[in-house]
UniProtKB/TrEMBL annotation:
This is Acyl-CoA dehydrogenase. The keyword Transmembrane does not apply. Gene3D superfamilies: Acyl-CoA dehydrogenase/oxidase, N-terminal domain, Butyryl-CoA Dehydrogenase, subunit A, domain 2, Butyryl-CoA Dehydrogenase, subunit A, domain 3. Belongs to the acyl-CoA dehydrogenase family. Its cofactor is FAD. It holds the Pfam family Acyl-CoA_dh_M. Residues 17-125 form the Acyl-CoA dehydrogenase/oxidase N-terminal domain. Keywords: FAD, Flavoprotein, Oxidoreductase. InterPro entries: Acyl-CoA_Oxase/DH_mid-dom, Acyl-CoA_Oxase/DH_mid-dom_sf, AcylCo_DH-like_C, AcylCo_DH/oxidase_C, AcylCoA_DH/ox_N, AcylCoA_DH/ox_N_sf, AcylCoA_DH/oxidase_NM_dom_sf, Mycobact_Acyl-CoA_DH. Residues 235-390 form the Acyl-CoA dehydrogenase/oxidase C-terminal domain. SUPFAM superfamilies: Acyl-CoA dehydrogenase C-terminal domain-like, Acyl-CoA dehydrogenase NM domain-like.
Length: 411
């Protein structure tokens, strides 16, 4: 596809979409044309491609120009999403950087922080991670024990974080640490921007059932963070964390409405056909349910995207999309098991050349449980929806209003 003179001069969203589509066809592989394992190969590919997209004027479309964005509007963003749906544009590598870290810096950052960090973030020169969960706190983010102590010129951070996605590839991170131990747990937290390559940072990748290492256990040993990299107000880290998690759920809720990846209906159907099982009544019923799940979650995403485009704040309702997606993913895993049967476990590795019917489906099945807990468990999402969307009473909390030093640990 070439860009016509009319499209080149057309400043409408339609003209922008035509230019975007022409550029994509000339520079980006079609989705599914090449399958790369999640890891260094995928990160290297998406880093290089993100820089090309940025330099061509198709990244950070709605972000302010002074902070590396294009200064365009929602119509152009939607036009890009439509054009890019069929292409292998960066998705996994930058989901945290662009869906969570960039927006929270935009919201809370100083002018100096935005100017320093956002252009490199949007271009993909720097990858960012989110550092909330801890080994001893589980889903109770406010129960974290990583401490930040005030020193000359900044802070010293000591502690540990876990389940941090792609941290082994990241240059920077957004971390929440405890700066006051004598107030209730939600009031003693502060958010910082941290250098993941600084002295004292130890990143330990965690291998999961697929053989991949998507998550990390990280130790911080007296890591210095300058005062100018404190992001939230002192003691307001919980509010910042809630806002950042809301960005994550909104990103999920308004994400691509096109189902992609190994679990996509077309891929599972192709695998069932290869097995010769599409005439079996049970398999046909499972395929029908899988199709309905895919369409339902896509329509929910489309609705939330339309609301966001209309300026309707999603706020806590972003948890509805997160919960719906997690529940659909869990049911999809059950349906895929029914459809493919024992062929699902005939696999020797997450590569296109691996043994078995469809290595990607098997890998996704083995790792699907992570989607039920990542970004907050389904139970956490139900609590948020009940309290902040439906207006139900909060669950009882025995540690409410108690100084953190007086809360029993490990009970």
């Amino acid at each position: 596809m070439t860009i016509t003179a009319e499209a080149e001069s057309d400043t409408s969203a339609a003209g922008f979409e035509a230019r975007a589509r022409a550029w994509l066809e000339a520079n980006v592989e079609r989705a599914g044309a090449v399958r790369r394992t999640r890891g260094e190969e995928l990160v290297a590919y998406e880093r290089a491609l993100q820089a090309k997209i940025f330099d061509a004027g198709f990244a950070a479309l709605t972000q302010p120009e002074e902070y590396g964005g294009q200064g365009l509007g929602e119509p152009e963003r939607q036009a890009w999403e439509r054009a890019a749906a069929d292409f292998a544009v960066p998705r996994m590598t930058y989901s945290v950087s662009h869906g969570m870290c960039g927006p929270i810096i935009n919201l809370l950052g100083t002018e100096e922080q935005k100017a320093k960090y956002l252009p490199r973030l949007w271009r993909g020169d720097d990858l960012w991670c989110q550092l909330f969960s801890e080994p001893s706190a589980g889903s109770d983010v406010a129960g974290l024990r990583t401490k930040a102590e005030k020193v000359d010129g900044g802070w010293r951070i000591t502690g540990s974080k876990v389940w941090t996605t792609s941290a082994q590839y990241c240059e920077r991170g957004v971390i929440v640490a405890r700066t006051d131990w004598d107030v209730p747990k939600h009031q003693g937290l502060t958010m910082f921007l941290i250098d993941m390559k600084a002295e004292g940072v130890q990143v330990n990748p965690l291998r999961v059932a697929t053989g991949e290492k998507p998550f990390n256990l990280i130790f911080f040993d007296n890591v210095f963070v300058p005062e100018e990299d404190r992001l939230s107000e002192l003691g307001k880290g919980w509010d910042a964390a809630v806002a950042m998690l809301r960005f994550e759920r909104i990103s999920i809720g308004t994400g691509s409405t096109r189902s992609e990846g190994p679990y996509a209906f077309d891929n599972v159907l192709a695998a069932a056909k290869k097995l010769g099982r599409t005439d079996e009544p049970g398999v046909r019923a499972a395929l029908a349910e899988l199709y309905v799940l895919e369409q339902g979650t896509s329509l929910l995403s489309l609705r939330m995207r339309a609301e966001a485009a209309a300026g309707i704040a999603l706020n806590a309702r972003g948890s509805i999309a997160k919960l719906a997606g997690a529940q659909a993913n869990r049911r999809t895993a059950e349906l895929v098991s029914e459809i493919l049967g024992t062929a699902l476990v005939s696999w020797s590795g997450f590569t296109p050349e691996g043994d078995g019917l469809y290595p990607g489906i098997t890998a996704m099945f083995a790792g699907s449980a992570s989607s039920w807990t990542a970004g907050g468990t389904m139970e956490v999402q139900k609590g948020i929806i009940g309290e902040r969307v439906l207006g139900l009473e909060k669950d009882p909390q025995v540690d409410r209003g108690i100084p953190f030093t007086q809360i029993r640990q490990g009970a």
